[in-house]
Amino acid sequence: MKPSKNIIIDVFTDPISLKRHRHTKSGHVYNPSMNDMKDFYLMAKPFVPKKPLEGSLKMTFYFVFKRPKKHYRSGKYSDQLKPKSPLIHQVKPDLSNVVKFYEDALGLTKFFYHDDKQISYIKGYKFYGKQGRVKLIIEEISDETLEDVFSEHCCSHSDKEYQPEEKDTNTPESYVCLDCNANLELLGEDVDIQRDEAYEEFGTWIDMEKS
Ligand SMILES: [Zn+2]
Questions:
Q1: Ligand 1 midpoint to CA 189 (Å)
Q2: What are the pLDDT digits (tens) for 107-150?
Q3: Ligand 1 centroid – CA 162 distance (Å)
């Protein structure tokens, strides 16, 4: 397995969401977020890696929105938060639109990674804070990591194969999912069930063992 590489971009600015592409009267499409993207790129430039990341990528987004004045008390206490001011940001813009802005902005430069297609894992958060902040972590992740996620959360392991131990060929006992290749648990109590399933599917070794 290759050592994992990552890039951290950490800039103090209010997070921005993606604006929809527009059509001009003459039919051209333009990106109304372009100037915002260029501004972000200037801020992110010090974090550009020597070489763009390759392979599968995990992106983690931390967005901190500068608190509005109404979160603070007034007068000489205006630097103090009101007791009920939230930490969690639950107003517009939607998290997914903010993620999309930064994903598109980074993808456009090609300096951080080659293509948006590489991103196969996204995590994002949005909060309120004293000042706006955008912190992004881009990590190369191994295919094994993604396969493990699929195996744990997405595969129903409906098509599996039990392999009994074969001493003469040095084959260990195993129970494998044929869809995701995961080694399924071999628990003492389950072995009978696993054997029955194997027996139904693959035949007659139990009878052979008895004889
Ligand atoms: Zn499976």
A1: 20
A2: 999 999 999 999 999 999 999 999 999 999 999 999 999 999 99
A3: 13
Task: State the angle between helix axes of 34-44 and 95-109 in degrees (0 to 180), rounded to the nearest 10.
Answer: 70
Ordered domains of the chain (ranges, CATH): 6-149 (3.30.1330.70), 157-202 (no CATH)
CA 157 to ligand 1 centroid distance, Å: 4
Distances (CA, A) of 185 to 98, 117, 139, 172, 178: 41, 34, 30, 14, 14
Cα of 146 vs centre of ligand 1, distance in Å, is: 13
Q: How many angstroms separate the alpha carbon of residue 161 from the centre of ligand 1?
A: 11
What tens digit of pLDDT does each residue of 65-107 get?
A: 999 999 999 999 999 999 999 999 999 999 999 999 999 999 9
